[in-house]
């Protein structure tokens, strides 16, 4: 859990620090909502992303998302699994951007207890990386992306994975 | 305009009517709905995981089909594939490992889920009042050497668990191998067996040993074959029903048990 706390605090400080700096320098801070098919969220996720332009065509962003595997558990009751991907991203480029990133995903999954068959929730964390391409005009609203997103499940098992993203700048 | 609306309404009314099936079989003219490894192939719960099995029973399945393999130390485990690497984070054969080595094995899909491999005993322990359900134990034959020691151990482990949970009346053991069929039949003729093999060979064995039934994939069945088996008082179970069409085809064949991959659909069309 310490690892998760570290990433959360890192993201918050990054956001606060950069937002403050951006405001002082009158930099246009971007709020983006996007939907991913595949990607760090597993089958897909809905995400919020805060993006800060930096000098020399660089920009950075932090994103948090939400996803699920199932909404109804094995007892047929509404009891969703929750997946929360948290990612720190770096970009280089004007409209066509190279994209790298890394992050943690917190999973909260409903499982059957093998002793009595009752439903239990299990919280775990996992690491993911992002290597991809993003199309985003500096003043445009549309965001499109494709990425290779390897996942290290339970910080042990590497799984090759990828994703497509469509987003909108608010 | 009124006529068009009337015709459309009639069309909608008739297209929404459910197909009624007239079942004639050896199972009291009813088809029992069995969850194939629980929720079946292609579901978000891996086949034979505890979650998949409990989910199918909670949704109304009348029983479950489980794939059974035995570990090196004689523990019965619910697992479908020949090797562990096909569906879990481990590699090798179940029979080459002890339960201690397997107990932390988890299914590879879906992502992040951590669904674990389970013992048959864990499944039965987790089901409240297990004797209310039907069980098909599909005994997998992935072992490189099936010597008499192995056969004794496997049959003994099966008998022990069936007796422990008082499931003789509710359990069907499925074998492909005649030696195992004969072995179990000799020791415990009261334990019901299904033969899972090519139709002609399976029917021959079922008649020869007076077994309860045969298990045949739906794409290898016809109504005539089912009728032939029934005429010899041999029941028919089928599987590979991973679409609605295949569920309906299995029902129209008048089989006795369907190990379905589309559980909700089958329950719906049979009004269960």
How does this structure look, described?
Chain A is mainly beta and 170 residues long. Chain A has one domain: Porin (Beta Barrel), CATH 2.40.160.20. Chain A is 14% helix and 56% strand. In chain A, strand 2 and strand 3 form a beta hairpin. The longest helix of chain A has 23 residues. In chain A, 32% of the residues are buried. The model of chain A has no long low-confidence stretch (mean pLDDT 88). By secondary structure, chain B is of the alpha/beta class. Chain B has one domain: Phosphatidylinositol (PI) phosphodiesterase (TIM Barrel, Alpha-Beta Barrel). In chain B, 36% of the residues lie in helices and 18% in strands. Chain B has 10 helices and 10 strands. An 8-stranded parallel β-barrel of chain B has the order 1-2-5-6-7-8-9-10, surrounded by 6 helices. The longest helix of chain B is centred in the middle third of the chain and has 17 residues. Chain B is globular. The N and C termini of chain B lie far apart (40 Å). At the A-B interface, strand 5 and strand 6 of A face helix 2 and helix 4 of B.
Structure described in brief:
The complex is a heterodimer of chains A (about 170) and B (about 270). With about 170 residues, chain A is mostly beta strands.
Secondary-structure map:
The complex is a heterodimer of chains A (170) and B (272).
Chain A: H1 2-24, E1 30-38, E2 44-53, E3 58-66, E4 82-92, E5 96-112, E6 119-136, E7 142-148, E8 151-153, E9 157-159, E10 162-169
Antiparallel strand pairs in A: 1-2, 1-10, 2-3, 3-4, 4-5, 5-6, 6-7, 6-8, 7-10, 8-9
Chain B: H1 2-15, E1 32-36, H2 50-58, E2 63-70, E3 76-78, H3 99-102, E4 118-119, H4 120-126, E5 134-139, H5 148-164, E6 171-175, H6 178-187, E7 192-196, H7 199-209, E8 213-217, H8 223-231, E9 235-241, H9 244-252, E10 257-260, H10 263-269
Parallel strand pairs in B: 1-2, 1-10, 2-5, 5-6, 6-7, 7-8, 8-9, 9-10
Antiparallel strand pairs in B: 2-3, 3-4
């Amino acid at each position: 859990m310490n690892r998760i706390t570290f990433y959360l605090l890192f993201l918050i400080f990054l956001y606060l620090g950069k937002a403050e700096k951006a405001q002082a320098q009158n930099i246009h801070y971007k709020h983006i909502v996007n939907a991913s098919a595949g990607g760090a969220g597993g089958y897909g996720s809905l995400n919020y992303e805060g993006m800060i332009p930096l000098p020399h065509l660089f920009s950075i962003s932090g994103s948090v998302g939400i996803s699920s595997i199932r909404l109804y558990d094995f007892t047929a009751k509404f009891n969703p699994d929750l997946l929360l991907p948290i990612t720190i991203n770096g970009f280089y480029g004007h409209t066509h951007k190279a994209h790298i990133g890394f992050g943690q995903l917190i999973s909260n999954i409903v499982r059957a207890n093998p002793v009595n068959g009752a439903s239990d929730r299990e919280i775990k964390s996992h690491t993911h990386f992002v290597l991809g391409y993003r199309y985003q005009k500096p003043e445009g609203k549309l965001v499109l992306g494709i990425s290779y997103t390897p996942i290290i499940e339970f910080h042990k098992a590497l799984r090759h994975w990828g994703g497509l993203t469509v987003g909108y700048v608010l | 305009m009124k006529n068009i609306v009337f015709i459309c309404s009639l069309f909608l009314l008739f297209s929404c009517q459910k197909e009624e099936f007239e079942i004639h079989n050896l199972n009291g003219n009813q088809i029992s709905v069995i969850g194939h490894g629980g929720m079946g192939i292609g579901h978000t719960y891996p086949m034979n995981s505890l979650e998949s099995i409990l989910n199918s029973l909670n949704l109304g399945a009348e029983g479950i089909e489980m794939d059974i393999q035995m570990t090196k130390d004689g523990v019965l485990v619910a697992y479908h594939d020949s090797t562990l690497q096909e569906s879990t984070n481990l590699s090798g054969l179940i029979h080459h490992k002890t339960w201690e080595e397997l107990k932390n094995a988890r299914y590879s899909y879906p992502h992040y889920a951590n669904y674990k491999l389970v013992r048959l005993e864990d499944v039965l322990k987790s089901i409240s009042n297990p004797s209310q359900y039907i069980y098909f134990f599909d005994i997998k034959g992935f072992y490189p050497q099936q010597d008499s020691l192995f056969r004794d151990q496997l049959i003994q482990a099966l008998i022990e668990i069936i007796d422990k949970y008082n499931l003789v009346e509710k359990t069907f053991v499925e074998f492909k191998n005649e030696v195992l069929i004969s072995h179990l039949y000799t020791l415990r003729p009261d334990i019901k067996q299904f033969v899972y093999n090519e139709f002609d060979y399976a029917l021959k064995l079922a008649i020869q040993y007076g077994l309860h039934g045969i298990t045949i994939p739906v794409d290898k069945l016809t109504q005539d074959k089912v009728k032939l088996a029934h005429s010899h008082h041999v029941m028919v179970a089928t599987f590979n029903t991973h679409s609605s069409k295949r569920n309906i085809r299995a029902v129209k064949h008048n089989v006795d048990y369907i190990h379905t991959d589309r559980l909700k659909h089958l329950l719906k069309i049979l009004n269960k």
